[in-house]
Design a protein that fits this description.
It is found in: Cytoplasm. The protein has 5 helices and 5 strands. It is an alpha/beta fold. Helix 1 links the parallel strand 1 and strand 2. Helix 1 runs parallel beside helix 5.
Length: 157
């Protein structure tokens, strides 16, 4: 199985990018992981919120293949503890899915088409974080999930 994280816009903070890269490197010992960064929509400031979500949605849909399981990182999604998230990952690996895709949308969230295409929603917290911070939190939790599945000493209960 491959896990892909699709995001809109690059991480412009070098310290955050360094930490994201650290966890990306660690993940390669557990699973094939891809970070797919879609460039920001051009002239986004001139677009309405709905039009921006629609244009971002079109770009996201181009990255999704039939058979992919698509999970949106969304504030209204299901919340897990780290252990529950590791079990969620194991369930998907056991299901035989080839590609599990997590998506971080743009500043206004997702278009209706993306919600319709998705197989579920996941929330990292009830709090709001910058999209760049969410990338770091997500890849760290992904790494943590795999260390839990392998009973490695990274996670403490």
């Amino acid at each position: 199985m491959t896990i892909t994280l699709i995001t809109i816009g690059k991480t412009d903070n070098p310290q955050l990018q360094e930490l994201i890269s650290l966890y990306q490197d660690r993940l390669k010992y557990y699973i094939k992981f891809d970070l797919d960064i879609i460039p920001d929509v051009k002239n986004a400031k001139k677009l309405t919120e709905t039009l921006q979500k629609q244009k971002e949605g079109e770009l996201i849909l181009k990255k999704i293949n039939p058979g992919d399981v698509v999970i949106l990182l969304d504030e209204k999604g299901k919340q897990f503890t780290s252990v529950q998230f590791s079990e969620y990952l194991q369930k998907h690996m056991n299901s035989g899915v080839k590609r599990l895709i997590f998506v971080i949308g743009g500043p206004y969230g997702f278009s209706d088409e993306i919600y319709q295409k998705s197989n579920g929603k996941l929330s990292l917290s009830k709090m709001t974080f910058s999209h760049q911070m969410v990338r770091l939190f997500f890849v760290e939790q992904l790494y943590r999930g795999f260390t839990i599945l392998r009973n490695e000493p990274y996670h403490h209960q």
